[in-house]
Specification:
Strand content: 25-35%
GO molecular function, one term: (3S)-3-hydroxyacyl-CoA dehydrogenase (NAD+) activity
Helix content: 10-25%
Low-confidence stretches: none
Pfam family, one: MFE-2_hydrat-2_N
Largest sheet: 10 strands, antiparallel
Shape: globular
Protein name: Acyl dehydratase
Distance between the termini: 51 Å
Order of helices and strands: HEHHEEEEEHHHEEEE
GO biological process, one term: fatty acid beta-oxidation
Length: 286
């Protein structure tokens, strides 16, 4: 059956309430490679309970609905879906421990045409469950590669952030560990393509790939250290497109341009000349 756009955009999903502890907060940071230098205070703040801070991209793994794409009324070919874009607005720093509540909604479904797929725009506001305070807005795009031509609207689409022309003003690098995907999957996404060499090869990858949201987090840390002096509370918005797979153990290079409080960026693997994050945009307060 084709995509059921009316069902998707009118779907009232059940609220997701999630409690997390300091152990979860530290594990998330460790899964991004933070703590590789245990004497660096900019890393230690995320992995040690004394003065512990949650890493700013942690909301992307919290209060996420499970199994929404396989709902029989949605009409999605979920095996052909990929996560293509991630957007994050941080209203208040995430506490190092707490209980959160969020409801995910499908904001729009765009028909790119027969053979060209469809775009699903999803979002969720994450609130503190006790106080009701809005902490973060997590939104993103799912690309349903096999579901175009269902007769839905062709727009408006969310346009990618344009990168400045010319050479980047900043070049930042981070090494990653070979076991990074095995750690990051403990945050909730246990897709075996990130752990099983056999399944990765069946998907035409030479070895397991890193979660796109892990690459997204590694790049965020580079930007925070360079443009916010390592202060995570200064990151207010952070968006990127996933453009190619990244393999654990590779070196991530970020090229960035800064104008006032706005940062444009992309991330790539120099050894393979592959851009893995593109059209990046971040807002860092002074």
């Amino acid at each position: 059956m084709p995509i059921n756009r009316d069902f998707l955009i009118n779907w009232e999903m059940e609220p997701v309430v999630q409690r997390y502890t300091d152990k979860d907060t530290m594990l998330f940071a460790l899964s991004l490679g933070l703590g590789m230098d245990p004497e660096d205070p900019k890393q230690l703040q995320y992995v040690y309970e004394e003065g512990l801070k949650a890493f700013p991209t942690m909301p992307v793994v919290l209060c996420s609905p499970q199994g929404w794409a396989v709902h029989p009324e949605a009409g999605l070919n979920y095996r052909m879906m990929v996560h293509s874009e991630q957007r994050l607005k941080i209203h208040q720093p995430l506490p190092p421990t707490g209980t959160l509540r969020a409801v995910t909604q499908v904001d729009e479904v765009i028909d790119k045409g027969e053979g060209r797929g469809a775009l699903l725009y999803l979002s969720r506001d994450i609130h503190d469950d006790e106080s009701g305070e809005l902490l973060a807005t997590v939104s993103g795009t799912a690309f349903a590669r096999a579901d175009g031509g269902f007769g839905g609207p062709s727009g408006p689409m969310i346009e990618p952030h344009p990168l400045p022309e010319g050479a980047a003003e900043y070049r930042l690098e981070a090494t990653t560990s070979p076991q990074m995907a095995l750690l990051y999957r403990l945050n909730g996404d246990r897709n075996p393509i990130h752990a099983s060499p056999e399944i990765a090869r069946s998907a035409k990858f030479p070895r397991p790939i890193l979660h796109g949201l892990a690459t997204y987090g590694v790049a965020a840390n580079l930007l925070i250290n360079e443009f916010a002096d390592g202060n995570p509370a200064r990151l207010k918005e952070y968006n990127a497109r996933f453009s190619a797979p990244f393999f654990p153990g590779e070196t991530l290079t970020v090229e960035a341009w800064k104008q006032d409080n706005e940062i444009s960026f992309r991330a790539f693997v120099a050894e393979r000349d592959a851009v893995v994050l593109n059209n990046g945009y971040a807002v860092v307060t002074s």
